[in-house]
Amino acid sequence: MSHAPGFQTAHIGLGGNLDDPVRHVCQALEELARLPNTRLLACSSLYRTAPVGKLDQPDFVNAVAMLDTALSPRELLQELLALEARHGRVRGELSGPRTLDLDLLLLGDRVIREPGLEVPHARMHQRAFVLLPLAEVSPHAVIPGRGSVADLAARVADQGVIRID
Predict the structure, then answer these.
(1) pLDDT band at 93 (very low <50, low <70, confident <90, very high)
(2) pLDDT at 91 over 80
(3) What is the pLDDT of residues 22-68, one digit of tens each?
(4) Residues 6+ apart with CB under 8 A from 119
(5) Which of 19, 20, 48, 103 is catalytic?
(6) With pLDDT > 90 as the criterion, what percentage of the chain qualifies?
(7) Exposure pattern of 89-118 as b/e (b: 16+ CB <10 Å)?
C-alpha cells in the first residue's frame, strides 16, 4: 500500500460491553475517521465476544479499524484515550466492563516499547476478538515477532467470537 510521505498504516482495536456497545463502537469508527491527519481505510464487521478474564459481565462487541495516519505513535495514543473519555470510559479493574476500549494494535511494522505504549499490542496474537476482525481488514498483515495474522487467527478460531453484522 502506498502512503503519502509521513503516513503509516495503523490498526485500532475497538470494543465495549456497556451502554449499547454497538452504538459506541460504530460512533467511535466515525470519530476515528475524523482524527487529524488521518484517513479511515477500512473497518471490520462487528463481532460478539464472551468476556475474557473477568467473566461476570456482559458480552463485548469488537471490531478493528485500519487507518492511514501521519500522527506520531504518542499523538495517536492520546487521540484514542481522548475518544475513550468522550464515550465515558472509566479505567477501573483490568478486563472489567467498559463503554469503549480503543487499542493501538499495529503501526506498520514498528515495534515500540515505551511506558504506556506497546506496539504490537501485548497478547493480541492470542485473542480471537482481535485477530478475526484484523484478518478481515488486513488478511496479509504480520504481527512483528509473532507471524501472519491469518495463521494466528486460525489457531484461535475456537474462542467463541461470532460475527454479528
Answers:
(1) low
(2) no
(3) 999 999 999 999 999 999 999 999 999 988 777 788 999 999 999 99
(4) 73, 104, 105, 106, 107, 110, 111, 112
(5) 103
(6) 82
(7) beeeeeeebbbbbbbbbbbeeeeeeeeeee
| Distance between CA atoms of residues 106 and 91, nearest Å | 22
Whether 48 is catalytic: no
Does residue 39 have an active-site annotation? no
Convert 5-48 into a string of H (helix), E (strand) and C (coil).
CCCEEEEEEEEECCCCHHHHHHHHHHHHCCCCCEEEEEECCCEE
Catalytic site residue from 101, 109, 110, 146: 101
Whether the pLDDT of residue 90 is over 80: the answer is no
Catalytic residue among 19, 48, 59, 89: 89
